[in-house]
Amino acid sequence: MAGSTVEPKLIDDGAVRGDVPSGAATRAVWDAVMQGAVEVAVRAYEHLAPPQRERVLEESRGLPGPSRASLVEVLRRARDFEGAARLLEEDGSHALAAPLHEQAGALQKAAEAWLRAGERGRAAAAFERAGSLERALELYRAQDARESMAQCLTRLQRPLEAATVYRELGNAHAELESLRAVPPGHPRRREAVLRMSALLDAVGDSWRALVLLADAMQESTAAREDGALQAEHARLLRHLGLDETPAESERAPVPPPDGYEYLKAIPIFGELPMQDLKDLFRMAQQVLIPADTTVLEKGARGTGLLVLLDGTVDVFSGPGLDARLLNTLGPGAFVGEISLILDGPTSAHVRSRTAVRALRVTRVDFQHYLDTHEAAALRIYRLFTESLAERVRALSA
């Protein structure tokens, strides 16, 4: 076909649907497609005006399968992801169309395409990213994906339902964070406060539980006179060895950081707004690590971020007895943050010197967080890239 032009008679061969007048702007695209000159077709398509690109898509409806596949490749290389997805959807290739919708930023269309492809997990995540939280929740329920259900319920401002799911999962940390969102004046505020107090006391944060109760009892006259709140407040005072007087309870020290401040201080999270950071904190789980235990193994695939709350760990150059001690880290320090983003081997060997209490964010959970918090993901990736560039610059110097 070298040197030839696409005449209307080619319509009968299934090449182009509709009359293509001589000199039409779309002719250059079709000439290149029919000749298999994909890159030429890409450049020709990129130079078309939007109405002309739309005409190419309409004309493609009469093409046979191989020619439509060639046009999809042209559109993909020209970065018209939405156009390529549209053609694939028309051909019933929903699983191939969905990621192209995502690249185009059409998350609702991507979710619908994943659903038509039978990929309910991906559909749910795409609906959540698109802000269609009720539809995402419905799909998560159908799959019994309870962690994702709880996150959706939290974003839908249904904290008590989210807390119930976290309680079923045995995630006391996330349950506590969900209950914090139950506002004063809520009909079930008393229930939430008592449960939070029990959770805090169970992990040794009795001071924090006492402060929580004292604050809750100041919210209203009914709260101050509530027998259950008074009884729990008195129990905690006895447990902490204090007299049951307001003067004594007012002298209760400020409780130590629970990990939120430590997470907030990690550089790659430095630009996250409060709600996004709260979502990430809720996703973390508290873990207890015995003394003299391998926390991170050098050379093994990283599993995620670990933020130290109590105790210390030693960082070694390797696992052997002759390994050099590089550092000793305590509360507020963190390890494994690179593995949240880069799936590679761990560069150091970390062992607990004492018993350790820490917050853990797994790589799997963090990837879901990025998928469902697009603006936060952009901020995190930018700061991570800047940090990486600084390290490279320091090594080069």
TrEMBL record:
Annotated source species: Pyxidicoccus parkwayensis
CDD domains hit by this protein: CAP_ED (cd00038)
Question: Pfam families recorded for this chain?
Answer: cNMP_binding
Name this protein carries in UniProt? Cyclic nucleotide-binding domain-containing protein
Cyclic nucleotide-binding domain segment(s): 268-387
| Keywords from the named record | Ion channel, Ion transport, Ligand-gated ion channel, Transport
Q: Identify the domain of life.
A: Bacteria
